[in-house]
Write a structure and sequence with these properties.
Layout lengths: L11 E8 L2 H9 L4 E5 L13 H13 L3 E6 L8 H14 L3 E4 L13 E4 L8 H10 L3 E3 L6 H10 L6 E8 L11 H6 L16 E4 L5 E6 L6 E3 L4 H7 L1 E6 L6 H20 L5 E2 L4 E4 L13 E2 L21 E9 L4 E5 L8 E5 L5 E11 L10 E7 L14 E6 L1 H8 L3 E13 L3 E8 L4 E7 L3 E2 L3 H12 L7 E9 L4 E2 L2 H22 L19 E2 L8 H9 L4 E2 L12 E6 L3 H4 L22 E5 L2 E8 L4 E6 L3 H9 L13
Parallel strand pairs: 1-2, 1-11, 1-12, 2-3, 3-4, 4-5, 5-6, 6-7, 7-11, 10-14, 21-25, 27-28
Antiparallel strand pairs: 7-10, 8-9, 8-30, 13-21, 15-16, 15-20, 16-19, 17-18, 17-20, 18-19, 21-22, 22-23, 24-26, 29-32, 30-31, 31-32
Helix pairs in contact: 1-2, 1-8, 4-5, 5-7
Organism: Pseudothauera rhizosphaerae
Protein name: U32 family peptidase
Length: 664
C-alpha cells in the first residue's frame, strides 16, 4: 500500500479545490481534492460565498477523515473598526478545526491570532523572489503565486525560498482576473464596490470601443479586457519540476457540477504524474472512482489558455463574448415556423441550451423545450437529425439559418449525471484474521500505517465445507459498505478452517473499523504555525504607494516594523482623487490587436512607425485611458474615482488608515 504521509511535506502534491458551500466542499473531497478552500462568514474576497461556522466545521470533519485539509478565506483588506471582529472570527475558525487562514491584510499579523497556519492570498500579488522570501520570513507557510508568472519566474521564486518552510501554490484552472491580483480599483472607482473587499463589479467583462489618440475607433464594442479561462492541464509536470506543490482550482462561485468535474479531471492527471514519480506522494489519503468521464470542456468556460506560463501569447482574450458558447453539436438543416432541424453527432435532450453566433459575432441562444430524433440520413450514418421546438418559439431568432453552426452550453444529460452520486473515495486497508486463546482477533492497517485490533470471544466449530468456509469469511470481512475504507488485502491466519456465524464476523469487522477511525482521528495533527524570523525581515521596498492596500493602522504598523518609511493609504481610503492606475495588468490590448511596437521590430516598412501611444476605452459614459509601460511589458488602465463614490463615502464616515487628515 502507498503511504503518502511518510513522505516529507515538500514531496506531497496537493490538489486544492474551491467550495461555495460545505456540501460542494464535501463533494470536492469525495472527488479527489487534498484540500478545500471555503469562505468564512465574513471578510472573504467573494462576498456571496460566505458560510456559517457550523457548516465549515461539518466540512472539516469530513475532510479530516481522509487526511484532507480545509483552508478558510479571511482575505479582504480591513478597516480599523473591523479588526477586532476579524480577530474573533480567526479564533472561531480555529475552533472549527480549520487548518489554515488565507490572508491578504498584513494588519492581521499584528493581532492576537490563534496558532493556525497562515497562507498568503493571491491578493498579496506575489511576482518576485524578493516578495515571496519576505512573506515566508514574515510567517506565511503557503503562498499563492501570481497567475502571470512564467515557469522561469516560478523556478526563481522556489530558489529564493525554503521548500521545508513554505509551499508554493499556483492556479491551474478557472476564470482569470485580467489585473494583477490586488491591483484593480476600477470597480471601487466607478461604483464604490471594492475588489479588495470581495465586491468586484467586473468591469473587465464589459464591451468597449477602443479609440486612438485622434478619437478614431480602433475596435467597436469588443470585450478587450476579458480573458479566456486558465487551463494548465498540459503543464502540471512542468509546474511540479518548477517547485509548485499546491495546485489550485479557481471557483468559489461555481456550482456543484463544475467542482465535481474539474476536481476529478485534475485528480486523474496528478495521479498519473505520481504513478511515475515515487519520490512524490498525494497530500491526503484514499483513491477515487467515478461514474463519469471528467472533461473540463463540459463546464462553463470562455475558451482555454495557459496564459503566460510559456511567455506572452497573442490569443489569450475572450473578446467576442465573455460568455460560454458551449460544445459544437451540429448545424442547422431547416428553419421552421415553430422550430428547427439540426444535423450532428451529439445526442440532444429536452431542456438543452443551444447557442450560435449572429453575423455581428454576438452570442444568441434558445432553450429546447422538446427534441425529437428524426430518421438518420443513410448517406451519413455517423450523423443524426433532430427536430427542436424552442421553449419561447422562433420569433426574434437572429441569423439562425441553414448552415449555421450550433453549440450546446446546457447539456441536461450531463447535468443529471452529476446531480447524482458520481464518485466514491476509499482508503486502502489490509486485514489479518487470527486465532487467540479464547476466540478471534482482526488486525487492520490502512494505507497511512494506522492500526487497530478488534477481538471476539467465540467457540469454534469445524467447517463442513472448508473451501466454501474461507470464501464466505473473506466475503464477510470485505463488506465495508458505507465506510471510507476498501479492502486491498485479506490474510486468513487460522490453523484450520472454522465455521463462523456471519453475525459474529460482521460485529468483529465493525469493531475493528470503528477503532481504526478512532486511531486516525487520534493521530490527526494540526498544521504548524510558522514563526516569523527575528529580527523582522526588511520589506523589499522602503516606500509603499496605494498599491500596497494598507487600509488600517495595524497594517501600517506591520510595514513600519519591517522597515518601510513611507506608507501611503489604500485606494479605498480616497486619497487618490486624481487620475491613477485603476488596473495594472500583464495583458496588453495593443499586443492583442497586433499594434505593439515590439511586434513590428525588424519588419521592413513598418519598424519604428508604431508607437505605444495611449488608447481610450469607452463604455457608455465611462472612459478609461490605456497607457503602456513597455519596459516591464505592462498595461495600466487609468482613470479617476467618481465624485458620487466620494460623496457616498463621506456620508458614512468609517475608521481606516490615512497618513494625513481627509480634505474638507
Amino acid at each position: 500500500m502507498t503511504t503518502p504521509h511518510r513522505h516529507a511535506p515538500d514531496a506531497r502534491l496537493e490538489l486544492l479545490a474551491p467550495a461555495r458551500t460545505a456540501d460542494i466542499g464535501i463533494e470536492a473531497i469525495n472527488h479527489g481534492a487534498d484540500a478545500v478552500y471555503i469562505g468564512a462568514p465574513a471578510f472573504g474576497a467573494r462576498t456571496g460565498a460566505g458560510n456559517p461556522l457550523a457548516d465549515i466545521e461539518r466540512l472539516v470533519r469530513h475532510a479530516h477523515r481522509f487526511g484532507a485539509r480545509i483552508f478558510a478565506t479571511l482575505n479582504t483588506i480591513l478597516r480599523d473598526d473591523e479588526l477586532e471582529e476579524a480577530r474573533r472570527l480567526a479564533w472561531a475558525l480555529y475552533e472549527t478545526g480549520a487548518d489554515a487562514l488565507i490572508v491578504q491584510d498584513m494588519g492581521l499579523l499584528e493581532l492576537d491570532l490563534p496558532p493556525i497556519q497562515l497562507h498568503a492570498s493571491t491578493q498579496t500579488d506575489i511576482r518576485t523572489p524578493e516578495k515571496a522570501r519576505f512573506l515566508q520570513d514574515a510567517g506565511f507557510s503557503q503562498m499563492v503565486l501570481a497567475r502571470e508568472l512564467t515557469l522561469a519566474q516560478v523556478r526563481a521564486i522556489r530558489a529564493a525560498t525554503d521548500p521545508a518552510r513554505c509551499t508554493l501554490e499556483f492556479f491551474i484552472h478557472g476564470a482569470l482576473c485580467v489585473a494583477y491580483s490586488g491591483q484593480c480599483y476600477i470597480s471601487h472607482a466607478h461604483t464604490g464596490r471594492s475588489a479588495n473587499r470581495g465586491d468586484c463589479s467586473q468591469a473587465c467583462r464589459l464591451p468597449y470601443n477602443v479609440l486612438d489618440q485622434g478619437g478614431r475607433i480602433v475596435v467597436h464594442q469588443q470585450h478587450v479586457l476579458s480573458l479566456k479561462d486558465n487551463d494548465q492541464s498540459a503543464n502540471l509536470a512542468a509546474l511540479v519540476d518548477a517547485g509548485v506543490r499546491s495546485f489550485k482550482i479557481e471557483g468559489r462561485y461555481k456550482d456543484m457540477g463544475y467542482v465535481k468535474n474539474i476536481t476529478a479531471h485534475y485528480r486523474q492527471l496528478l495521479d498519473g504524474i505520481l504513478a511515475g514519480r515515487p519520490e512524490l506522494a498525494r497530500a491526503s489519503s484514499g483513491r477515487c472512482s467515478y461514474t463519469f468521464t471528467p472533461d473540463p470542456r463540459r463546464n462553463y468556460n470562455r475558451g482555454a489558455t495557459d496564459y503566460f506560463l510559456h511567455g506572452r501569447q497573442a490569443d489569450i482574450g475572450a473578446f467576442d463574448a465573455p460568455t460560454w458558447a458551449g460544445l459544437p453539436v451540429g448545424h442547422v438543416v431547416r428553419v421552421l415556423t415553430d422550430g428547427l432541424e439540426l444535423e450532428g453527432d451529439a445526442a440532444l435532450a429536452n431542456g438543452d441550451g443551444l447557442t450560435w453566433f449572429d453575423l455581428q459575432r454576438n452570442l444568441q441562444g434558445l432553450r429546447a423545450n422538446r427534441v425529437e430524433r428524426l430518421v438518420q440520413p443513410a448517406a451519413e450514418p455517423q450523423l443524426a437529425r433532430w427536430r427542436v421546438w424552442p421553449a419561447d418559439g422562433m420569433a426574434g431568432r437572429k441569423d439562425l439559418r441553414p448552415g449555421t453552426e450550433v453549440s450546446r452550453n446546457t447539456d441536461m444529460a450531463w447535468d443529471r449525471l452529476l446531480e447524482k452520486k458520481s464518485a466514491d473515495r476509499r482508503i486502502a486497508l489490509a486485514m489479518t484474521l487470527r486465532e487467540t486463546a479464547d476466540g478471534l482477533a482482526l488486525d487492520v492497517e490502512d494505507e497511512d500505517g494506522h492500526r487497530a485490533t478488534a477481538t471476539l470471544a467465540h467457540a469454534f466449530e469445524p467447517a463442513r465445507d472448508t473451501a466454501r468456509a474461507e470464501t464466505t469469511l473473506r466475503e464477510q470481512l470485505g463488506k465495508l459498505g458505507n465506510t471510507i475504507f476498501a479492502v486491498e488485502r485479506i490474510a486468513i491466519a487460522l490453523p484450520r478452517p472454522w465455521f463462523l456465524p456471519a453475525g459474529a464476523v460482521n460485529a468483529l469487522r465493525r469493531d475493528a473499523i470503528e477503532k481504526l477511525e478512532a486511531a486516525r482521528a487520534a493521530a490527526w495533527q494540526r498544521l504548524p504555525r510558522a514563526m516569523a524570523v527575528e529580527p523582522p525581515a526588511p520589506y523589499p521596498d522602503g516606500s509603499l504607494t496605494y498599491l500596497a492596500n494598507v487600509f488600517n493602522h495595524k497594517a501600517r504598523d506591520f510595514y513600519a516594523r519591517h522597515g518601510v518609511q513611507v506608507i501611503a493609504a489604500a485606494y479605498e481610503s480616497h486619497e487618490e482623487t486624481g487620475e491613477a492606475s485603476l488596473m495594472i495588468t500583464k495583458h496588453c490590448v495593443r499586443y492583442s490587436l497586433s499594434l505593439c511596437p515590439k511586434q513590428t521590430a525588424g519588419v521592413t516598412g513598418v519598424a519604428g512607425t508604431i508607437r505605444a501611444e495611449p488608447l481610450v476605452l469607452v463604455n457608455g459614459s465611462e472612459r478609461l485611458t490605456l497607457r503602456f509601460d513597455c519596459k516591464p511589458c505592462e498595461m495600466h488602465v487609468v482613470g479617476r474615482i467618481k465624485k458620487s463614490v466620494l460623496r457616498e463615502a463621506q456620508a458614512a464616515p468609517l475608521q481606516f488608515y490615512r497618513p494625513r487628515p481627509p480634505a474638507a
